Amino acid sequence: MRRLQSHMTDITNEVAGKSVSHVTQPGAQRFDVHFTDGSVLVIALAQGHLAAVLTCSRDDSSSGRRPSGPQPTRRQLDYLKFIAKYILRYGVSPAESDIARHFLVSPPSVNQMVHMLERRGFITRQPGIPRSITIVEDRKELVCSPQAAATGDLRLNALQRSAGANGSARSPRSRIARRR
Question: Is the pTM of this model over 0.85?
Answer without folding.
Answer: no
